[in-house]
Amino acid sequence: MSNKNDCRRQRGNESCGCTAEDVNAQGNALDAAFENTIGAERRAEDFSDPICISVDKVYDACRERNCIVDARVYFTPCNQEIIENSINVKLKKAEIIWVYTDIEPVLYNSGYYSIDIKYFIDVTIEAFAGMCDPEEIHGLVTYDKRIILYGSEGQTKSFKSTLDPGEEIEHVWKTTNLPKVTVEVVDPIALTARLAESDCCCNESAVAIPSNICSCYGEELVVSDNVKKVLVSLGIFSIVRIERNVQILVDAVDFCIPEKHCTSSTDQEPCELFNSIRFPIDEFFPPSGASNLSSDDNGSCCSCGCSR
Fold first, then answer.
1. Which of 49, 65, 241, 279: disulfide with 182, CB 3.0–4.6 Å?
2. Confidence class of residue 135 from pLDDT cuts 50, 70 and 90?
3. Which top-level group of life is the source organism from (predicted)?
């Protein structure tokens, strides 16, 4: 496939005159010639008839716009002490840590499923104490949502060789015919944050935070109610899909062989790659999006209580 050895035999190892670019260009040309002749003819026989593939078919999907109002932020004991001495807080940003989902059939409505979604969101808070510079700390916000989607009915049970249920086998073997839930979500939009005084009661909050989520913060989080709280408002955009694995026939043309050649920067020519990069005009002159904004279908959305 490569023309490097031929070039060396013709010109000699020391006086070859072939640069790395020449060898790569000649090799790429030979690869292209092979793909257009022998390779294409060989694969034409493999794709003469439709082929069977296994894919996840989307049976139902929905998109959501959720505005979370006054959700409590849970902190580690050290960060909670900072909040106790703060006079004001500012919400800097929010990031999705994980999304847990649970699916169950809807009674008396065959083919429909109730999907419980729990978002775990890391928020960055700037805490102000007196005239000092703000201190940046992290905390956890949780948000629960329930929706209903159609996922059809499946009576067969699927088992894969790559899955080892371990101690969860009792739960797994009873749920292998359920459809799969996929949640796509962008990082939330940070809206507002405010302080709230502690409640008079001293009972523990009912919130349950998994240990693997707490491990992101290095220790357990404070969930009691008799502490000063930080309440934040966030905006979340998400798409939820319910899928099942199916086998379908498709007309295939060829294998997905990349046509683009990899470009790398070397110590000898670092500027060559840099010069091939498009000048980032949008970074210096951000496009105006005002003309693309449109109101909701049912008129203006008055507050965060709107959900779609």
1. 241
2. very high
3. Bacteria
Looking at residue 226, its amino acid is N
pLDDT tops 50 at residue 177: yes
Residue 26 has a pLDDT of: 72
CA angle 208, 88, 143 (to 5 degrees): 25
Exposure letters 17-47 (e unless 16+ CB within 10 A, then b): eeeeeebeebeeeeeeeeeeeeeeeebeeee
Judge contact between 71 and 231, C-beta under 8 A: yes
- At 123 the pLDDT is 96
* CA distance linking residue 91 with residue 71, whole number of Å: 12
Report how far residue 150's alpha carbon sits from residue 101's, in angstroms, rounded to the nearest whole number.
16
Residue 79 has which token pair? 């960060």
Please state the domain extents for the chain. Answer: 4-50+251-278, 53-157+167-249
